[in-house]
Amino acid sequence: MSTRVIIVGAGGHGQVVADILLQMAAYSATLRPVGYVDDDASLAGRQLLGLPVLGKVTDIVAFEHDAVVVAIGDNRTRRTLLMTLQSQGESLVTAIHPRAVVASSAVIGAGAVLCAGVIVNPGASIGVNVIVNTGATVDHHNVIGDHAHIAPGAHLGGDVTIGEGTLIGIGAVVMPQRRVGAWCTVGAGGVVTRDLPDRVVAIGAPARIRRTHA
Length: 214
What we know:
Blueprint: E1 3-8, H1 12-27, E2 31-37, E3 47-48, E4 51-55, E5 67-70, H2 75-87, E6 95-96, E7 101-102, E8 107-108, E9 113-114, E10 119-120, E11 125-126, E12 131-132, E13 137-138, E14 143-144, E15 149-150, E16 155-156, E17 161-162, E18 167-168, E19 173-174, E20 179-180, E21 185-186, E22 191-192, E23 200-203, E24 208-212
Parallel strand pairs: 1-2, 1-5, 2-4, 6-9, 7-10, 8-11, 9-12, 10-13, 11-14, 12-15, 13-16, 14-17, 15-18, 16-19, 17-20, 18-21, 19-22, 21-23
Antiparallel strand pairs: 3-4, 23-24
């Protein structure tokens, strides 16, 4: 029996996730994406990658499904939606593109999304609701906190820790054994050579803290 999945979010990232699920379904009959829910009224009724936009997020209970994946790029919004859906008893699907390379000893959290070209090496732990985006690499024994986003082309050295809700920007690099705190932003192309505390924005090579935020 296949698992029927609704994608929460029909924007650009939602369609990336839909493509991952469709690719997964081509390899396994146990998973079947059935459509999206999205609060953007202009998307209602549209077909995107052959899947319908079924209605608003609050309408999700009206559609037959077995699990969901939250496909929203913004980390805080994605966390809020996930927590709401879990409180309603929803189950989570993990979306891993068939062309991602994931070590057998890596641990991937529920609801995580691993895009095409991702590499996750031995001993790594990817948290709940994390995005590891196109072509990003997560080296050995990394710990990636829940709701984080490792953007396209970002590279994490060995033994790196990324805190909850943190965004590692496009093409950024985190050097081995460095820690980036919770709810941080490392700007595109940044190079983290020193540990960063919680709730900071750091840019440049080497990455320097420009501001803090709540």
